[in-house]
Amino acid sequence: MRYAVRSAIGAIMCALTATSCASLNINAIPAPGTSYQGGYNIVAEFANVLNLPDKAKVVLDGTTVGVVTKVSIASSQVDVTARIDRDVVVPSNIHALLQQATVLGDIYIALERGQDTRSAGPPLGPGGRIPLAQTTSPPQLEDTIAHLANFIGSGSIQRAQNTVIGINRVTPPKDELRRVVSQVTTDLKDLSNNIDNVDLLINSLYETSTVLATRTPALTLLLSPAGVAGFRRDVILGNIFGTLLPSLGSIYNGGYWLTPLIDSLGNALKAVQGSKQAVEAEYPAYRKFITDYFLPQDKYPAINITSIIGPDGRELSGNVEQVLRMLGAVP
């Protein structure tokens, strides 16, 4: 009888021990450091969280401000509950994403503010939610491996290697490369020393563009059908003159004999200039003779006899009738 009672008591104690061990959870052990027991909870909605560990840290502005306390699956997303320090204010327009500090490091939640810090939204209170539109989940590991396999298997590495080999082939030797670099350095130094000329060129281009802008109507006419037709005719005339110019050029090149001829022409013109000055000096006398003497006599031809002296020296102009008889003018 005693043996049966002892066996029953032992079985009960073993059952209690087994159930107590089954209820143990490593996550129930408090992690070292801040537990944020006095903080408040917020919920971030993610499309997936991959292998986000329990007690993962929450980082804001490079500082750990909370810890993940719960991960639960909702209808179309994963709700990640995080406890935030009570002294930290999380705006409602915050963006949450999953990051890794290193390649093999644990995943944590990073809270990033918007680019415009002046338009921060109202703070999230206890139980506030970060919607799915404001979260970024990492790509699936399977997709990453598949893309990596496609990249390796598609020959991209071989093509990159061939590209590097081709670049090495077309790269000039060291001496030639050194000469090219030296020439480029010299050109850049000249450009820096003559930057004022570059500014002058830019200003000239600006002024030219301004003039062209002010003459837009003329340019429009020039580019119109009538202007194009006129330009075509000018090209035809240019071809004709282009045929004649070589012959003129031969005359120009062999025209050294024209030098004494031109000198003689210069002396002749100088002599003509002196004659012109002499003619201008004599012109008043000629003009007076013609206008005062010649033209009146030519218009009214007559002879005025003022005195007649005879052979013996006597004045005969007094006896007019006798003089006219002598001339045969009076019978």
Automatic annotation (TrEMBL):
<dbReference type="InterPro" id="IPR003399">
    <property type="entry name" value="Mce/MlaD"/>
</dbReference>
<feature type="domain" description="Mce/MlaD">
    <location>
        <begin position="39"/>
        <end position="114"/>
    </location>
</feature>
<feature type="signal peptide">
    <location>
        <begin position="1"/>
        <end position="22"/>
    </location>
</feature>
<dbReference type="Pfam" id="PF02470">
    <property type="entry name" value="MlaD"/>
</dbReference>
<keyword id="KW-0732">Signal</keyword>
<dbReference type="InterPro" id="IPR052336">
    <property type="entry name" value="MlaD_Phospholipid_Transporter"/>
</dbReference>
<protein>
    <submittedName>
        <fullName>ABC-type transporter Mla maintaining outer membrane lipid asymmetry, periplasmic component MlaD</fullName>
    </submittedName>
</protein>
